[in-house]
Design brief:
Blueprint lengths: L7 E5 L7 H19 L4 H26 L2 E5 L2 E6 L5 E6 L3 E7 L2 H6 L1 E8 L6 E7 L1 H19 L12 H13 L5 H12 L3
Helix pairs in contact: 1-2, 5-6
Length: about 200
């Protein structure tokens, strides 16, 4: 699917966290089935446990197929998202059309190394969100690098990724403004509470 002189820079599937819910469900159902068998439960309970086991296994297989068939590919000239097995959907965004590249992570996402990539491109009214990606900061930087290289070839100004300031640093900056009299105590407390909610 690559064009001449086009190279793959990033090729990723969704983060492994995408599979945690069905795996946990299957483990719980298996444990319940073992307990039911060990306790000599009535036959209807055994049948219910088998049905639950089949549903949990189906849930895991469905999610695993979705995981294996979903890919985000960043090349030197475009971004490609492919999803689906029987019915395939392919979405392409040229690097030259991207106007903003950012990512978002909750506290848990930061712990496990996952996050959502958020793109804005010319000619689109809404943002494109690519959820549950591994190491979104690395992917963002790779995309920005390709945009910069493309614009350098055309003689245009480079685009830089927005600087990411941590929440404790933002609170410290606000405290500095408060100490200089640029913010009231009430304004500082309100903004601090708003920032702490993001953790």
């Amino acid at each position: 699917m690559l064009n001449p002189s086009e190279q793959v820079v990033v090729d990723v599937r969704p983060h492994w966290w995408f599979l945690v819910a069905p795996v946990a469900t299957l483990v719980v159902v298996i444990a319940g089935s073992v307990v039911a068998a060990a306790e000599s439960a009535p036959s209807w309970a055994i049948w219910m446990a088998l049905v639950a086991l089949a549903l949990a296994a189906g849930f895991l297989i469905h999610r695993y197929v979705r995981w294996t068939s979903t890919r985000l590919v960043v090349t030197t000239s475009r971004l490609i998202r492919r999803t689906g097995v029987l019915s395939r959907r392919v979405q392409e965004i040229p690097m030259a059309a991207l106007t903003d590249v950012s990512y978002r992570q909750s506290l848990w996402d930061r712990i496990i190394g996952a996050g959502d990539l958020v793109l804005e491109s010319a000619g689109r009214d809404s943002q494109e969100v690519f959820p549950d990606l591994p190491r979104p900061a690395r992917i963002q930087q790779q995309i920005v690098n390709q945009i910069d290289q493309g614009r350098n070839l055309l003689g245009g100004p480079p685009v830089r990724a927005p600087a990411v300031t941590s929440i404790p640093d933002q609170i410290e900056q606000l405290d500095g403004l408060r100490q200089r009299g640029l913010l009231t105590d009430a304004e500082f407390d309100a903004k601090k509470a708003e920032l702490l909610k993001r953790l």
